[in-house]
Amino acid sequence: MADDNNMRVSVEPYILNKRNSDILVDLINGRRKYELPIIYVSKTRQNRTPIDVGRLSYVLKGVAHVIVQGDVSINHLLNKKCAHRNETYGSIGVYYPSQKLGHKRCKYVEGGHPEILMDKIVDYVMQYSNLQMVDSILTWQGVKNSMLNDIIERTNEQYNIAISDKTKAQNEVEIVYSEFGNEIDELTARIKELTNRNLLLEEENARLSAKVTEKKGESSAFSG
């Protein structure tokens, strides 16, 4: 997996010390962003790690970065550089890539249950990951809906153009008929009359032809 803004995606937690403290300082002060959430685990007053950071890193590999404070003595340095916005004395911060979500802070309680605290951190990260998946689905659905709306809009435009053309054609026919309606009716009647007369003439010719043929037959009989 590719590095995340120069932070290697690792199954091991990052140890924060004086030399690399700017990793956390720049994150809290908004000077550096990462694609994955950052889990910062501070040391307790007894300079102990409040949860099993090795297991947490393994569970969240590829989903979040885990940074653990190397020594409680750097609290003074971090407080100064971060204006006391950093987690201290066993508290754990979940820093999301999105500024809208801000970050979550889980307080450490002496004598509490580390497993419950770690499960809470994992839940925060997985909820964020699931939200990103939903956003991707909704984004693609939005793209498909937009494409569908474009198709519907183009279809409506084509339909409206076709209706407009049909209306124009009908109007043109009405205009022509209003101006030449009488002439058209007269011509239509005249054509019908001529057609009927032509049919009558054809019938008359057929009868005459039959009579001529009949006469020729009679003449041939007498001649014989």
Structural notes for this entry:
- The protein is α/β, with parallel strands linked by helices and 224 residues long.
- The chain has a domain at 14-140: Glutaredoxin (3-Layer(aba) Sandwich), CATH 3.40.30.10.
- The protein has 4 helices and 5 strands; from the N terminus they run βαβαβαββα.
- A hairpin with a 7-residue loop joins β4 (92-95) and β5.
- It is rod-shaped and about 140 Å long.
- Keywords: Coiled coil.
- Residues 152-211 form a coiled coil.
Structural descriptors:
Glutaredoxin, alpha/beta, rod-shaped, 59% helix, 224 residues, five-stranded mixed beta sheet, 4 helices
Cα separation of the termini: 120 Å
Tell me the overall shape: rod-shaped
At the third CATH level, what is the topology name of the domain at 14-140?
Glutaredoxin
Query: Can you give the mean pLDDT?
Result: 81
- Percent helix, as a range, is 55-70%
As laid out across the biggest beta sheet, the strand order is 1-3-2-4-5
Name of the CATH class of the domain at 14-140: Alpha Beta
Return the structural class: alpha/beta
| SSE pattern, N- to C-terminal | EHEHEHEEH
Beta-strand proportion: 5-15%
Please report the total strand number as a whole number: 5
CATH homology group of the domain at 14-140: Glutaredoxin
How are the elements arranged and paired?
Elements: E1 14-16, H1 22-28, E2 38-41, H2 53-59, E3 65-69, H3 75-82, E4 92-95, E5 103-106, H4 114-223
Parallel strand pairs: 1-3, 2-3
Antiparallel strand pairs: 2-4, 4-5
Summarize the structure.
This protein is an alpha/beta fold. The chain has a domain of 127 residues: Glutaredoxin.
